């Protein structure tokens, strides 16, 4: 309870999961950064998205949301072994895209901050797995006051990056919002 009046909060976990759902309300919080791994092959992508949404329901005055999607263990292993063949490294990217993924979270209530306060969303090391896309779609489609979207895509094939950017641009509710993709 010592931290409920904080204005900025940075939460880290090995995996973005339910470990944060028992947080208290943070009525003064305006900036939130969530760091963790969201695997593209998550068994329950809806749970990953609803966990983040549950956190957002506890921060009614949030204006800036940063999601840092950490790399899975595979990428860390590659850094430890720099003697891989070039082809192995090219095939080891973390980008994913499946146009047939179901991304709806129809029954999830929209956190008040998304509809009335959030002005900036940053998605760092966005890899495009189903859980990440489901979450990004929900956030962007429910943030009418969004002024800036920043998305740093994970390394990978240009065609996947292009599809992810196109998809994300259609989700942004505010047509005047600045969209930066790197």
From TrEMBL:
Transmembrane segments: none annotated. Pfam families: FBD. Signal peptide: none annotated. Residues 109-149 form the FBD domain. It comes from the Eukaryota. This is FBD domain-containing protein. It comes from Aegilops tauschii subsp. strangulata. The lineage of its organism: Eukaryota, Viridiplantae, Streptophyta, Embryophyta, Tracheophyta.
């Amino acid at each position: 309870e010592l931290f409920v009046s904080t204005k900025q909060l940075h939460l880290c976990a090995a995996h973005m999961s339910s470990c944060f759902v028992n947080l208290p309300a943070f009525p003064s919080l305006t900036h939130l950064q969530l760091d963790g791994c969201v695997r593209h092959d998550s068994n329950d992508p809806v749970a990953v998205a609803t966990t983040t949404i549950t956190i957002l329901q506890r921060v009614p005055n949030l204006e800036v949301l940063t999601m840092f999607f950490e790399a899975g263990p595979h990428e860390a292993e590659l850094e430890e072994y720099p003697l891989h063949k070039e082809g192995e490294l090219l095939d080891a990217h973390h980008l994913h895209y499946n146009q047939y993924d179901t991304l709806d979270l129809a029954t999830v209530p929209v956190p008040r901050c998304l509809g009335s306060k959030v002005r900036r969303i940053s998605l760092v090391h966005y890899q495009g797995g189903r859980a990440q896309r489901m979450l990004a779609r929900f956030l962007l489609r429910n943030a009418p006051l969004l002024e800036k979207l920043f998305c740093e895509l994970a390394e990978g094939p240009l065609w996947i990056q292009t599809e992810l950017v196109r998809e994300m641009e259609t989700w942004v509710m505010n047509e005047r919002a600045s969209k930066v993709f790197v």
